[in-house]
Design goal:
Elements: E1 11-13, H1 19-22, H2 27-59, H3 71-75, E2 92-95, H4 100-107, E3 113-117, E4 132-133, E5 154-157, E6 162-165, E7 172-176, E8 183-189, E9 192-195, H5 196-214, E10 223-226, H6 232-249, E11 257-262, H7 265-268, H8 271-277, E12 282-287, H9 289-299, H10 323-329, H11 352-356, H12 365-383, E13 394-397
Parallel strand pairs: 2-3, 3-4, 3-7, 10-11, 11-12
Antiparallel strand pairs: 1-8, 2-13, 5-6, 8-9
Helix pairs in contact: 2-5, 2-6, 6-8
Keywords: Glyoxylate bypass, Glyoxysome, Peroxisome, Transferase, Tricarboxylic acid cycle
EC number: 2.3.3.9
Family: Belongs to the malate synthase family.
Length: about 400
Amino acid sequence: MGAGYDVPEGVDIRGRYDEEFARILTKNALQFVTELQREFRNHIMYAMECRKEAKMRYNSGALPGFDPATKYIRKGEWTCAPVPPVVADRKVEIIGPVERKMIINALNSGAKVFIITLVDKFLKRLVGRGTQADFEDALPPCWENLDAVNGTITFHDKARNRIYKLNDQTAKLFVRPRGWHLHEAYILIDGEPETGCLVDFGLYFFHNFAAFRGTQGQGYGPFFYLPKMEHSREAKIWNSVFERAEKMAGIEWGSIRATVLIETLPAVFQMDEILYELRDHSIGLNCGRWDYIFSYVKTFQAHPDRLLPDRVLAAQIPVRDDLAANEAALELGNAPHQIQSMKREDAACITGEDLLQIPRGVQTMDGLRLNTRVGIQYLAAWLTGTGKMLRRPRLVESKIGSG
């Protein structure tokens, strides 16, 4: 296992050897990933311990809330760096399974962004032309499922005798690494599994920074989506990782830009602080609805008074069969984003109670059966190598905000 790879001292590859993987798992690339792990491992461990302590408090009856110690950030005068014009318009983003034909169709879809999400045990060779692709949820953890997205990707559909290739204009690529809590079991650093998101970020960045260096100062990225954060201390680690990578690559400060997915309940009370920590590398926040629902359940799993109603809803935009909901979802109109659509004082009346209110709705046995059935089917698809049960890319509405 792993024999044949040329690795730095202290690095162990547990996956099988493959010549294609070896072109990604080069000694220099692994050295960069190893340096990130060694430099930030203690900060990551501390952040994960803080998560555990917070979870114990919630299980004991406590509620998430605003941190009094960071009130100066919420009330202070500061702004994030301006959004690069190339990604200013993100009204339509697309995310879907990372299959060769699906990637090409997604990049050619006319969407502004395609989201690539990087998953456990996957090695990514992604030289982006522009988009966010879902490796995190839509691919099972098998190295064989990974392919290159380098701007020359093609697909020959033999059944239809049709060749798929990229258009001249494609969506912008946003890469979504794993969350801080996930490990890369196939790459060990000093005897410990590497932090998954550092593998995802490190390998992608190392193999592509030359292209980024060629366009530095022009706002062409690289661009990232950062998932699953629960506290601004985790955003601070990401900011330090970005600074470290920019210095290594010799690219301009602030070239790396990231949108943070607000998809955990604790993060709702840390949004100002998260933007503050990433202010030189931020391009806003985006709410992840499905994961947010899961986080609400997880946070209040010991609170019997906070049982959620049935969750039979669709995540896509436009909204079918509901004109009012569709109009509300598309209220941006011709505006490219929402960064300057509201002022801080407009949200001053929002309280912690508002952010913790229980959704209204019925709780039925059919809803319980559906949740159970979907959970089993999801795991079965993952374990058999199919991944998330998506057959078409889904559209997601981009709700971008800044400090």
